[in-house]
Amino acid sequence: MLDTGFFLRWMHASAVAVDREAAHLTELDSPIGDADHGTNLQRGFAAVTAVLEKDAPDTPGAVLVLSGRQLISTVGGASGPLYGTLLRRTGKALGEAAEVSQQQLAEALRAGVTAVAQLGGAQAGDKTMLDALEPAVEALGESFSAAREAAEQGALATVPMLARKGRASYLGERSIGHQDPGATSSALLMAALAEAGAGVEEAS
Question: How many domains does the chain have?
Answer without folding.
Answer: 1
